[in-house]
């Protein structure tokens, strides 16, 4: 079994889910007392959050690059970022490590492609929805048509993520707001919803809507385990 390296702390709620899911998935596949071989470097999210709001992507890139280097030096055979947004600097990671980096958008795009869905709603932080680091992979590499909410709705989702979800707060009012945005998109023919923030599935459940939801964190984990134990 290969050792999985995790860059966590963005925020720690999603990192906790990654750790739990990786271990449960390995045990599900291998049985017995098997658990995942994991190394984690967890950053201080306050620093990342301030740099994000200031659009200091290069500074963030240096932090995650250093974390990736720590993981590789510690013996990780592959590296994952336990967050969607910070994949915006994933090129810097790839350029500075010699082990595989599993991009969350690749794992997600592959699964949606297997489902033969085309028109997909992407939800996440405003940076994930507005910048092309995520959508270009899904559109160019997997042939998907990515839809994002209108500007006011993007701002509402972004606020909910930063003011609530990343602090472990999950309210019915925020759930109602996001479901209203999703139902509006469904009327435009959307065939699935990417929950492109690893905390969103803690608020929006697959039973809440009538089309598939794509929990990017869970998808990321499943792909990592298939690589780690060579199930592909």
TrEMBL record:
PROSITE patterns in the record: ASP_GLU_RACEMASE_2
Family membership: Belongs to the aspartate/glutamate racemases family.
A Pfam family it matches: Asp_Glu_race
Organism lineage: Bacteria, Pseudomonadati, Bacteroidota, Flavobacteriia, Flavobacteriales
GO MF, any single term: amino-acid racemase activity
NCBIfam families: asp_race (TIGR00035)
Organism per entry: Aquimarina spongiae
UniProt superkingdom: Bacteria
Membrane-spanning intervals of the chain: none
Keywords: Isomerase
Protein name: Aspartate racemase
């Amino acid at each position: 079994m290969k050792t999985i390296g995790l860059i966590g702390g963005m925020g720690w709620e999603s990192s906790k889910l990654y750790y739990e899911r990786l271990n449960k998935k390995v045990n599900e596949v291998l049985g017995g007392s098997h658990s995942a071989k994991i190394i984690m470097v967890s950053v201080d999210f306050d620093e990342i959050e301030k740099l994000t709001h200031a659009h200091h992507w290069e500074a963030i890139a240096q932090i995650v690059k250093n974390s990736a280097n720590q993981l590789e030096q510690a013996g990780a055979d592959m590296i994952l970022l336990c967050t969607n947004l910070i994949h915006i600097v994933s090129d810097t990671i790839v350029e500075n490590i010699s082990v595989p980096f599993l991009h969350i958008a690749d794992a997600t795009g592959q699964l949606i492609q297997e489902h033969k869905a085309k028109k997909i709603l992407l939800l996440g932080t405003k940076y994930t929805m507005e910048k092309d680091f995520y959508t270009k992979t899904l559109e160019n590499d997997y042939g998907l048509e990515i839809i994002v909410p209108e500007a006011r709705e993007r701002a509402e989702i972004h606020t909910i993520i930063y003011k609530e979800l990343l602090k472990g707060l999950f309210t019915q009012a925020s759930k109602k707001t996001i479901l209203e945005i999703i139902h509006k998109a469904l009327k435009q023919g959307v065939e699935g919803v990417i929950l492109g923030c690893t905390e969103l599935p803690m608020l929006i459940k697959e039973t809440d809507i009538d089309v598939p939801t794509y929990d990017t964190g869970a998808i990321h984990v499943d792909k990592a385990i298939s690589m780690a134990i060579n199930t592909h």
